[in-house]
Each structure stands twice: as structure tokens, then as C-alpha cells.
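[Q] Does anyone have a clean C-alpha cell version of this?
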Amino acid sequence: MLIGIGINVENSEPTTCFKQMAGDQGDKFSRETVLAAFFNSFERIYDIFEEKGFDPFQASYLEHWIHSYV
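[A] Here you go.
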């Protein structure tokens, strides 16, 4: 399985980017800092997933599920 993700840090076209959304704080966002923050969070989540599977995430996943009408 392959999983891909794109995080738009600096390119405001064709949609928006982190720096643009951050306004005056935009200079704090570089590709390196965003990538480091992402992997720090992802590593903790992945460790939980490896140990306990999907169960700890299921409630949050279903809460944010956008593909069905409630």
C-alpha cells in the first residue's frame, strides 16, 4: 500500500498555503518546520496504531467522516 499526502506550505496558487493562512506569523512556516511537526505527530500516532490497531482512532475517524449524510 502507498499513501500520499501533500502539504502546501509556500505556494498560494491554485488554492492557499500555510504561510498565507498564517498572515503575520507566516514567516514561522518553512517546509522544514512543517515537515518536522508533521512527522513528530505522525510518529506518535503510528506507534499507537502499530501497538493497538485502528480501534483507538475509530471514534474520531467516524466523527470526521464526510462521506455519508447524517
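[Q] Thanks! Anything notable?
[A] The chain has three helices and no strands.
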